[in-house]
Amino acid sequence: GAVVSQHPSRVICKSGTSVKIECRSLDFQATTMFWYRQFPKQSLMLMATSNEGSKATYEQGVEKDKFLINHASLTLSTLTVTSAHPEDSSFYICSAPLGGVAYGYTFGSGTRLTVV
Amino acid sequence: GESVGLHLPTLSVQEGDNSIINCAYSNSASDYFIWYKQESGKGPQFIIDIRSNMDKRQGQRVTVLLNKTVKHLSLQIAATQPGDSAVYFCAGGSYGQNFVFGPGTRLSVLP
Fold first, then answer.
1. Residue pLDDT, tens place only, A86-104
2. Per the CB < 8 Å rule, is B96 touching A99?
């Protein structure tokens, strides 16, 4: 079935550095990608929606300059956490609708970011 | 705004029994609903979806029921297995757009 491959699965970085998370759609074209973060024992919270070839739409309270999203192709969307701080430590997840007649959604496997 | 919530935060069932996880939503304009499971430390896994023009949809061992009158949907898992232990989320919205996720129900399968 349709798969979104998300990398890295885990990353530890120092405060002040930047981290890039990639989500690739392997056998379908992801015109839209949703980026979520999830805190322990909580549900997914949407950060932004990226659409191929256009600027991402950010949810209220999400800093555009801190969480840079790029969706340059139909198979790749990236989230870059810039100038990371310990409070950015979280589980980041991407998701894409399968589109067409398939309906359904697929999720990346998530990235556990720890900022030290 | 939209809100989606679950009636029971935890559910324990005996292996082999059927499980029913319930969910309520508030936005009557929602026309697409999905169920996901998430195992500890892993990303969500899509289980099944249903459109608002349907009231029932079946998958492999799972059935989703939608009652638009009372804005309620449920996920039924037949012959629950240990591998079904996870947190289950419902979400509602419109296809292709963002969903509102419920807080999750933890399903524990007892041997």
1. 999 999 999 998 876 567 8
2. yes
